[in-house]
């Protein structure tokens, strides 16, 4: 028997494919990548993309543990990044290591990380552990720790020092600006190929155990008029002038702290950008998004959802404010995604739980336009139980996130572009919710979980299902997912007809079909399980 009889003749299919590809390309054509352009954030009709090498890029990330950015630890970091198939590693740069003596900079570790990232074909988001780390200042160089008056701690309401850096110290600001500028200057000279695509300025800044600084410098500012820039941000309802208490009443302490921390960090970021203007963001220790307690029950001064507007006004050098999502329940998780996905704020999740059950939230973030998603602590440096009692990181525990990245990494440029174009939506399984509907106007995508062949949906034993659906033409969709079934319903009332379902992938922005799904693969809907599969669907009605 000649092989010809058994080979799908794609020439007939190809005619349709050309039309298909043309339709897809007109809507989502990718710019040729251009490594000379600096990474930057673009905003288009209120949607965003991180542009890397001249085209939208999706951060499929993992963050290391806090103490992993040391030469002796890196061999325990890269294998986890490989097992995950992540395209980006987020890893700290420690001020105490970078500036061991005043004005003397040790770039050896950052250079090593960049070189190793290149060898692993991974990009980097570097985290500047400077003045703030989780509300404290524990990463100050030793020589600064030994001069507490230079980088003083906050004074609480009771007059006692609190373990949190004051945002009102001019000398602290100078030292941080100087070191951060040196760091960015070095990146510019060492990283012409843009292995580093974004920089986090500080880490979860703000203060615990006091709503604000009550130092004499702070008190003076608190009694003074609210800065005009902040009044302007209040819009039409702003009073002409007033002190913090007059203008903000019971919120004045919290708003004052947010303004102060944001202004400090804006100046650090601006100093760094003057050397090398990479995209910069600040990560946020959140307040409860559904039932926030009063100020003081969460970190104060960071970009919590109620003070995003203050941060936007105070820190124009910061490109985006990024939530660290450790909310275990999905209602809260999804609410946070909604709160930080704004026309003036690109959604990016720089930290989240790396647990298997949270893997689906990557799709939830992408469905809300995220430019990236990156669970915390995914390396092999922590030998026993991790923080919060979550299990040790193993290849098996990484597998659900690895599946996400196996699906997404080959199509990450297309997904980022589709999001910029506003064409992508997602569904993630919720316990007890067996069917979800995604509205695309003339079509609805119907996503069901735990459904056998032509049976009824029962839900997966654990809620792990996820689907990503993009509308790429009037009757054309790109679909992928895991542990779910995707079908379509016409708004016209006509009965859905799968005219053609092609499984394939992208080559230089063009969809290349590998096979056509038909028969069992389409008769009951499009089933996605634990294999990375992307299909392009042409729909009709009868
Ligand atoms: C949030 C911080 O930003 C991280 O650096 C790390 O401390 C985690 N919390 C630990 O859970």
Give an account of the 3D structure.
Mean pLDDT is 93; it is low at 1-31. The strands form five sheets. Strands 12-14-4-5-6-9-10-11-13 form a nine-stranded parallel β-sheet. A six-stranded antiparallel β-sheet has the order 15-18-19-24-21-22. Strand 18 and strand 19 form a beta hairpin. Helix 7 runs parallel beside helix 11. The radius of gyration is 25 Å and the shape is globular. The chain contains 16 helices and 24 strands. The longest helix is centred in the middle third of the chain and has 24 residues, at 252-275. It has helices at 3-6, 10-28, 78-84, 95-98, 108-119, 142-145, 170-190, 216-223, 228-233, 244-248, 252-275, 308-314, 330-340, 361-367, 395-408, 412-420; strands at residues 40-44, 47-52, 55-57, 59-63, 88-94, 123-133, 153-155, 161-165, 196-203, 280-285, 320-325, 348-349, 351-352, 372-373, 424-428, 435-439, 443-448, 466-473, 476-482, 484-490, 496-507, 510-517, 526-528, 534-541. The protein is α/β, with parallel strands linked by helices. (2R,3S,4R,5S)-2-(hydroxymethyl)piperidine-3,4,5-triol is lined by residues 66, 134, 203-204, 283, 324, 351, 376, 387.
């Amino acid at each position: 028997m000649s092989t010809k009889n058994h080979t799908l003749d794609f020439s007939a299919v190809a005619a349709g494919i050309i039309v298909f590809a043309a339709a897809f390309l007109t809507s989502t054509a990718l710019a040729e990548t251009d490594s000379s352009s600096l990474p930057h954030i673009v905003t288009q009709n209120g949607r965003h993309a991180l542009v890397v090498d001249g085209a939208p890029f999706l951060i499929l990330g993992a963050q290391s543990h806090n103490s992993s950015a040391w030469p002796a630890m890196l061999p325990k970091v890269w294998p986890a990044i490989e097992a995950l198939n992540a395209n980006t590693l987020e890893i700290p740069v420690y001020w105490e290591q970078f500036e061991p003596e005043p004005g003397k900079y040790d770039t050896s570790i950052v250079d090593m990380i960049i070189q190793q990232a290149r060898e692993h074909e991974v990009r980097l988001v570097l985290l500047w552990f400077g003045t703030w780390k989780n509300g404290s200042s524990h990463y100050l160089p030793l020589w600064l720790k030994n001069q507490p008056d230079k980088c003083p701690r906050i004074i609480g309401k009771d007059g006692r020092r609190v373990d949190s850096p004051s945002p009102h110290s001019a000398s602290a600001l100078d030292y941080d600006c100087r070191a951060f500028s040196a760091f960015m200057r070095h990146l510019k000279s060492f990283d012409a190929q843009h292995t580093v695509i974004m920089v986090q300025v500080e880490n979860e800044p703000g203060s615990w155990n006091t709503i604000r600084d009550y130092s004499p410098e702070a008190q003076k500012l608190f009694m003074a008029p609210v800065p005009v820039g902040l009044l302007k941000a209040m819009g039409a309802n702003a009073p002409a002038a007033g002190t913090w208490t007059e203008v903000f009443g019971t919120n004045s302490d919290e708003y004052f702290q947010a303004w102060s921390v944001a202004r400090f960090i804006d100046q650090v970021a601006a100093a760094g950008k003057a050397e090398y203007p990479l995209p910069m963001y600040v990560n946020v220790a959140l307040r409860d998004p559904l039932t926030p307690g009063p100020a003081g029950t969460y970190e104060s001064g960071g970009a919590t959802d109620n003070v995003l507007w203050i941060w936007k006004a105070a820190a124009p050098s910061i490109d985006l404010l990024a939530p660290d999502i450790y909310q275990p329940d999905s209602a809260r998780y999804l609410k946070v995604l909604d709160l930080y996905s704004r026309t003036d704020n690109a959604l990016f999740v720089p930290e989240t739980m790396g647990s298997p059950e949270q893997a689906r939230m990557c799709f939830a973030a992408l469905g809300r336009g995220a430019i990236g998603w990156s669970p915390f602590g995914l390396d092999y440096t922590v030998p026993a139980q991790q923080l919060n009692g979550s299990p040790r990181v193993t290849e098996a525990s990484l597998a659900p996130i690895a599946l996400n990245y196996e699906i997404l990494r080959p199509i990450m440029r297309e997904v980022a572009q589709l999001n910029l174009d506003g064409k992508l939506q997602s569904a993630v399984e919720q316990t007890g919710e067996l069917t979800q509907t995604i509205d695309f106007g003339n079509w609805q995508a119907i996503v069901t979980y735990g459904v056998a062949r032509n049976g009824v949906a029962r839900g997966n034993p654990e809620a792990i299902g996820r689907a990503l659906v993009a509308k790429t033409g009037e009757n054309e969709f790109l679909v992928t997912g895991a542990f779910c079934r995707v079908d379509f319903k016409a708004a016209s009332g006509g009965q859905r007809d799968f005219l053609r379902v092609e499984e394939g992938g992208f080559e230089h922005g063009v969809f290349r079909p590998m096979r056509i799904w038909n028969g069992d693969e389409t008769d009951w809907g499009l089933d996605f399980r634990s294999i990375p599969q992307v299909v392009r669907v042409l729909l009709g009605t009868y």
